[in-house]
């Protein structure tokens, strides 16, 4: 994602003030230490250009450090205000990173399927690319059980990130072979998720135009992990997390108050458990799955610890949203399976969540 700065001096000011804030938040810098820093070095004067990220960051940082220095805010509040600033920065990037939408091409045809739909996660697609056996198995099961295997635009977003063009093409070929270019996409006219037939190259070109925005959305999701430290400190306790990890019907087991507090960290369809039942529109399902998934993050339920897997949690959410329209959701990611079962059952959506090894057990 592009970080704009109008010259090297302003970039340095924003970087240095960021480091000072980091130290204040980690409590390694006290008010008296701030006195030793020459605030003039990080202050933005007449050079403010009103047009670059570094200028806005530097001005915000300077004012926040100053408030800490004069005692208006403590280190916890500095952390919260900086976090809120990051949210607005990334939200802005998400909204304005959409590229030239006038060139956006949509050339799709709605499809009605009377067959049960089987959504495959990206890791199943990867396996189908790497092992010919898996691809044949999936095609055979599709025929034998008279089901329809589907992917979504979210697969294309992941495929677009593959930089090796040969490998990218392999993924496109596998997707086309499995789905016949029939994928789940959002339909803005009636706010539903529907099946469409569309040439894969057109879907991919649309994904390309929104890629900057998607990256910001993904970074927003990662930022939410920091919320736990700031607002839900009790879930940092390992024993409590183990206890939660073993619970079933996790959302039902939370008190109404705790549930509201957790889901309201993102934008839920409503603060009450009942607000999550019987949803049909794309936007309400999206809000519901996003806030439930985020709530599971906040309480560290079945959460991957490595950065690599954390980075894909934005995609997990997308797959759960599109998968909600299907009869089967197939993934080899164990943690995602646990989360999918909790989220779908809480929403009252009857989906069978299975690993690939159990796909043959599908009974129609
Ligand atoms: Zn500037």
Structure description:
The chain is α/β, with parallel strands linked by helices. It folds into 2 domains: 89 residues, no CATH class; 259 residues, no CATH class. 57% of the residues lie in helices and 9% in strands. The chain has 17 helices and 7 strands. A 7-stranded mixed β-sheet has the order 1-5-4-3-2-6-7, with helices on both faces. Helix 14 crosses helix 16. The longest helix has 22 residues. The radius of gyration is 23 Å and the shape is globular. The mean pLDDT is 88. The site of zinc ion has 7 residues, from helix 3. The site of zinc ion (ZN) has 7 residues, from helix 3.
What ligand molecules are bound, each kind once? zinc ion
From the alpha carbons, calculate the radius of gyration and give it in angstroms.
23 Å
Unreliable spans: none
Order of helices and strands: HHHHEEHHEHHEEHHHHHHHHEHE
Helix content: 55-70%
Average predicted local confidence, pLDDT = 88
Shape: globular
Give the amount of beta strand, in percent. 5-15%
Q: What structural class do helix, strand and pairing data support?
A: alpha/beta
Please, how many helices?
17
Q: Main β-sheet: number of strands, strand sense, barrel status? A: 7 strands, mixed
N- to C-terminal distance: 45 Å
Number of self-contained structural domains: 2
| Strand order, sheet with most strands | 1-5-4-3-2-6-7
Total count of strands: 7
């Amino acid at each position: 994602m592009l970080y704009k700065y109008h010259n090297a001096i302003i970039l340095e000011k924003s970087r240095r003030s960021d480091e000072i804030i980091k130290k204040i938040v980690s409590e390694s810098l006290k008010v008296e230490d701030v006195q030793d820093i020459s605030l003039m070095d990080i202050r933005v004067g007449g050079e403010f250009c009103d047009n670059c990220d570094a200028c806005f960051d530097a001005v915000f940082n300077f004012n926040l450090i100053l408030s800490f220095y004069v005692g208006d805010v403590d280190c916890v509040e500095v952390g919260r205000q900086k976090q809120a600033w990051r949210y607005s920065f990334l939200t802005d990037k998400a909204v304005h990173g959409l590229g030239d939408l006038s060139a956006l091409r949509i050339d799709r045809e709605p499809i009605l399927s009377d067959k049960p739909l089987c959504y495959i996660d990206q890791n199943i697609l990867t396996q189908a690319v790497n092992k010919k056996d898996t691809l044949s198995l999936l095609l055979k099961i599709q025929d034998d059980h008279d089901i329809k295997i589907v992917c979504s635009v979210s697969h294309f977003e992941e495929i677009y990130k593959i930089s090796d063009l040969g490998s990218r093409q392999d993924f496109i070929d596998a997707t086309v072979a499995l789905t016949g270019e029939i994928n789940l996409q959002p339909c803005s006219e009636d706010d539903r998720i529907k099946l469409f037939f569309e040439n894969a190259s057109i879907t991919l070109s649309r994904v390309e135009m929104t890629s900057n925005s998607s990256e910001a959305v993904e970074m927003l999701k990662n930022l939410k992990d920091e919320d736990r430290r700031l607002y839900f400190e009790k879930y940092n306790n390992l024993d409590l997390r183990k206890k939660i990890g073993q619970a079933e019907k996790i959302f039902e087991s939370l008190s109404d108050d705790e549930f509201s507090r957790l889901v309201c960290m993102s934008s839920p369809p409503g603060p009450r458990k009942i607000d999550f039942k019987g949803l049909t529109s794309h936007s309400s399902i999206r809000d519901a799955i996003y806030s439930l998934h985020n709530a599971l993050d906040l309480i560290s339920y079945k959460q991957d610890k490595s950065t690599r897997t954390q980075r894909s949690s934005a995609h997990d959410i997308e797959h759960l949203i599109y998968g909600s329209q299907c009869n089967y959701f197939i993934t080899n990611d164990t943690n995602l399976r646990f989360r999918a079962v909790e989220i779908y059952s809480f929403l009252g959506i009857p989906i069978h969540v299975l690993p690939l090894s159990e796909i043959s057990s599908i009974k129609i």
